[in-house]
Fold this protein.
Amino acid sequence: MTGLPTATPITLILGYDIRHSSRNALDYLTSYNRINNPPHMDVFGHSPETIDPTIGTVFSGPPSSTFTIPAPSGVPQPSTSYANLVASEGLDAVKMSLWGGTISNIVYVTQGDLTAAISEAQIAVTFTASSPTAVLAWGGHIASRADWGFTNGVPNSAGGISGSPYHMRLVNWYGTTPAITKQLGNLGNQDRSLSAVAVYVPPGRIIVDKVTVPSGSPQSFSLTGGPDAISQSFSLTDTATPYDSGTIKPGVYAVSETVPAGWDLTSAVCSDGSLPSAIDLSAGETVTVTFTDTKRGKIIVDKVTVPSGSLQLFDFLVTGPMGYSDSFSLTDADLPHDSGWILPGTYAASETVPAGWDLTSAVCSDGSPASAIVLDPGETVTVTFTDTKHVFYTGTIGYWMNHPEKWPTAIIAPDDPFPWTTGALAGKSYMEILWTNPEGDASIQLARQYIGAKLNQLVFGVPADIAAKILDAEAWLALWPAGSNPPKSSPERAAIVALAAELEAYNRSGLPPPN
């Protein structure tokens, strides 16, 4: 400013657009030297320039006067933004500077209308010049989307003003008397404009975090997309520091994971609700994407036989979640069966026990019952089935004839009448039938071997097939009781003789009963 009267107050009215195109433009005035927030290096790639309003004037060094620009009254914005700026940078951030005079007051003439499509705020700066030339310097706080938000994806701030410039201008000035005002003259069209292309759009960040259940091996990721079609590849473990994309332009990005064998991607969640395949990164936003992978488990089935080394084949079935079913066969010498990687959950392992064997134990390494194996993520459970071959005793009819004390007398006593007798043997006891010489009578042969097998069944137990033959013998004896002597040429006699031979073979097949 030149040709100023000295030693008398002068009031300069400044105007600036607070609204343009139904968006917020300039929030309030600040000091002239606020050009490093956001950091210049982040935005332009170099250190901030030196701002010196006195270049080309007679002045140099610090201003002769500063004055705090009053806070705007808009609630919550821009008053909150002004308060946050003062809290973080101090009052120097909102001071107007003057070289060649003293500022005595700054007040709002009008703060405009924050609901209007276009609106201007005006502020009056009163100063007294100490020389005919003076320099007044200030800056402006450009409305930020971080303060004003978005409508339908468009910022309600300066970044949302498309193409049209918005302005800061010198409106008027005057002195304390008409003569001084006349001396000041007409300001003319002193206007400065700013267009949307000059507005800094703050970058965003994408943070990728890895969670594994349980903690596990590295996983590979890729981050792609956005305005610059970036492509970043990296690996993470559960315990690693989350991956930081660095500052990137707002836009749509995709994060994907290569899931290793034996793992399942159980969730992928963005902190802003986006899909990981379409992360809508806004200006200044930090989106954290958390990938959670759950490791599968294994069930190992091992077969043990007593005595060891048996070639007997045992059939197994393992069932579990989502219709899982795995059937297989093992011998004692086979390698344990490996389920491969399967989903965590509750499984059941069962065995079909062959005749002549007893399942003596089925033990899980984690303490679960074999019928309800709780397979945790990453767990390997070994189920060991132990089968013991029957050690069976059988007494011959001679044994039972000579050891009446071993009979189960509560059920059958040696002197009890035998149920199926006729003729000369009618009413004979069990023991008397045993001591009877068949002399070619097939009914007596069958009766004697039946008594031996029945006593073996009651005392030692018999296999299911022998139990069935004992029932067959009872049916035949009901038709052909002991002493009935079936005709030698009849098919019935042949069947009775064959059955008697089978029972005799069994009665002789086991270990001798212990004393």
Q: What stands out?
A: The chain has nine helices and 29 strands. The longest strand covers residues 9-20.
